[in-house]
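Entry 14. Ran structure prediction on the chain below.
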Amino acid sequence: MLQEKVYRAVSGWLMVAVLVVAPVAGFVSLVTAVNAAPAGDESSPVLWVLASIALIVVSLVSWFGFRIVNPNTALAVQLFGDYRGTVKTAGFWWLNPLTSRRRVSLRVRNFESGKLKVNDSIGNPIEIGAIVVWRVVDTAEALFLVDDYEHFVHIQTESAVRILATSFPYDAHEEGAISLQGSGHEVSQRLGHEIQERLAKAGVEVIEARISHLAYAPEIASAMLRRQQATAVIAARQKIVEGAVGMVEMALDLLSKKKVVTLDEERKATMVSNLLVVLCGDKDAQPVVNAGTLYQ
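Output, structure tokens:
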């Protein structure tokens, strides 16, 4: 496995000073070699001249080695195809001019997948989308282990979203069960874990992943809406009945405690029936005046 390593670049300001002095020194050395050559010795001046010319040429070529590294940006350095290391420290640097460099952003990025149409764990067709916040943490793996790491992030995210959608139902039908709609925290953690497993080999870290769109597919949306409405009505009715029973019980206890009226079992049953009708009915109750007694 190819792993990231540090490339030790030289300070750019130091090399500016060196490369300003080096050509001047080479030119002075060249003039001195030509003027001070002994009359009978040709080999020594030739080597001196060649060394001076080489110094001048190397100094001029070295000016192409300067690079600026911005904050949260890295330079991956290669020499004749061999990975030599990565410069992550921001600043003005000098690198070997014969090396090639590839710039990689280390900034936090986000990606929103398209609306994917899949079936949930019980076969209902749904539409789902996700947002992933990510960044590159290993430049060597991102550049050299995958072909295009940004495209790799997009494809693997959609794959993880599809697997997540098929693992849970849209709605929970049992108390405490995990569902896509009702268990946002658990589902987001599972999604982040699924994506991170796929992107680890590309040198990418997933910071956050969450569902951005969730809905039933259009062909079943109306039927599921009626089902949700019915479920909501049933739940509301249960609350209403529980509250009405409590109010009736409280009314009977207060009447008995304060001895407002003495009720036998039949009158209690009639009173309970009337109160439940009033409290649980959809419409306002219409009072009926009884001129007689309960037994006539």
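The chain has three domains: 10-105, 109-216, 221-280. Will compare against last week's run tomorrow.
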